Amino acid sequence: MSEQPERSFKAVSWPGTGGGAGNAAVAVSAPVGAVSRKDRERAARTTLEPDGPSGVALLSQTPGSALLQRRTAASEWETLSTEPASRQGRTPIALPQDTSTRTYRVVFSPKNPNLTSWVSEPFDR
Questions:
Q1: Which of 5, 20, 82, 85 has its CA 20 to 30 A from that of 13?
Q2: How far is 109 from 43, CA to CA, in rounded Å?
Q3: Can you name the residues that pair with 110 across neighbouring β-strands?
Q4: How far apart are CA 60 and CA 32, in angstroms?
Q5: What are the chain's domains?
Q6: Which residue intervals are annotated with compositional bias (Polar residues) in the record (predicted)?
Q7: Which residue in 86, 80, 81 sits closest to 111, CA to CA?
Q8: For 21-72, what is each residue's pLDDT tens digit?
C-alpha cells in the first residue's frame, strides 16, 4: 500500500524554445478582450479618400467590413452596400448614380470585436 503507482508525464515543446533560442513567454496567452497596441494603432490609421468622380476608397490596416450609408429624408442612415476590407488594403466603394445630391458616410467595422468601429465624416455627392 505504501508503493505509489508509476505516474506518466508528458513533455510539451513550444516552437522557438529549443536550444535556448526562443522565449518561453511566447506561450503566455492574452486575457479575453485584450487588443495589442499595434492593432489599436493600425485601426486608428483608417482613412477615407476620393476615388474618381463616382467613388471613395477606404484605406484600412485591419481586416473587417466597410458599409456605405446614405442619409434618408427622415435623417436616418440607410445602409446601401457592405464590402469586405482586408488588412493593408484599399477598398474601393462605388457611390450610387443618383441625379440629386445626397449625404453619405462610410462605417468601417473591424473583424476584431474588441476594436471600435470607425465612422467617416458625412460627405455630399
A1: 5
A2: 10
A3: 64
A4: 24
A5: 32-124 (2.60.40)
A6: 78-89
A7: 86
A8: 555 544 556 566 778 899 899 999 999 999 988 899 999 999 999 999 999 9
